[in-house]
Prior knowledge:
Layout lengths: L1 H28 L7 E2 H4 L3 H10 L6 E2 L1 H4 L5
Antiparallel strand pairs: 1-2
InterPro entries: EF-hand-dom_pair, EF_Hand_1_Ca_BS, EF_hand_dom
Pfam families: EF-hand_5 (PF13202)
Organism: Pseudoalteromonas piscicida
Amino acid sequence: MKNVLIALSITGLTLASANTIAGEDFASYDTDGNGAISMSEAKVNTALIEQFKDLDVNADGELNETEFSNFKG
């Protein structure tokens, strides 16, 4: 039972860390803090620029966190 609890704790911490890292990536691109990544903010990453139009599902010229979560960088 103790081993199961340890394994579940490690799994939970791993998932929480992955979510934190993803959130930090979004925040690091969203330099103006408006909750979206513009094309000019994305220019710091060539892979993001290449995928930008495909990721921008609603075609508003910005990536929200949901759209950015599909970024494969």
